């Protein structure tokens, strides 16, 4: 075991605007998968609720907290990823796009509580915007934690599919 310095990252996933409509016949019901990428010893992932029939402008206003390894963040190894998903009851869920934000940039420019930022939602290998994600963030005080070195490798695609399946089971 080793002792590591962490900071609490408090996010508020506020809303998305002008998302690309990936549904052909109905209004989109959208949720977000929020995760911290790059820390193999402390994988963190959560989801928002599904904003049903939100169309292109879902709103969540959901607070999310993560424990961020400060050293990895300052060495630009960690990023915040928000993946926007269109939930479909009878068809597979469809990825609208995602936002990936290096945590070093957020640490270097601490925001005041309630300060809202906007990021372009993009698909992999696409330069064209698929909409805008609005969020706010704040870093808490430092704390120390004992970390074990047992690493469980996970596949992001599998997690996303499992979450989509779990949402289907819960909401069906």
UniProtKB/TrEMBL annotation:
<keyword id="KW-0812">Transmembrane</keyword>
<dbReference type="GO" id="GO:0006952">
    <property type="term" value="P:defense response"/>
</dbReference>
<keyword id="KW-1133">Transmembrane helix</keyword>
<dbReference type="Pfam" id="PF00168">
    <property type="entry name" value="C2"/>
</dbReference>
<protein>
    <submittedName>
        <fullName>Putative C2 domain-containing protein</fullName>
    </submittedName>
</protein>
<feature type="transmembrane region" description="Helical">
    <location>
        <begin position="151"/>
        <end position="171"/>
    </location>
</feature>
<feature type="domain" description="C2">
    <location>
        <begin position="1"/>
        <end position="119"/>
    </location>
</feature>
<dbReference type="InterPro" id="IPR044750">
    <property type="entry name" value="C2_SRC2/BAP"/>
</dbReference>
<keyword id="KW-0472">Membrane</keyword>
<dbReference type="InterPro" id="IPR000008">
    <property type="entry name" value="C2_dom"/>
</dbReference>
<dbReference type="InterPro" id="IPR035892">
    <property type="entry name" value="C2_domain_sf"/>
</dbReference>
């Amino acid at each position: 075991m080793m002792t590591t310095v962490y900071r609490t990252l408090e996010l508020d996933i506020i809303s998305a605007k002008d998302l690309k409509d990936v549904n052909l016949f109905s209004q989109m019901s959208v949720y977000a998968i929020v995760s911290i990428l790059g820390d193999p010893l402390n994988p963190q992932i959560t989801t928002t609720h599904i904003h049903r029939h939100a169309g292109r402008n879902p709103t969540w206003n959901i607070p999310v907290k993560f424990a961020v390894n400060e050293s990895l963040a300052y060495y630009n190894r960690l990023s915040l990823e928000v993946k926007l998903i269109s939930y479909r009851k009878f068809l597979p869920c469809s990825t609208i796009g995602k936002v990936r934000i290096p945590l070093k940039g957020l640490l270097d420019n601490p925001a005041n509580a309630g300060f809202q930022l906007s990021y372009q939602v993009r698909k992999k290998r696409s330069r064209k915007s698929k909409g805008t994600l609005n969020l706010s963030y704040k870093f808490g005080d430092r704390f120390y934690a004992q970390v074990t070195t047992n690493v469980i490798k996970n596949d992001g695609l599998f997690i996303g599919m499992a979450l989509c399946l779990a949402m289907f089971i819960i909401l069906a």
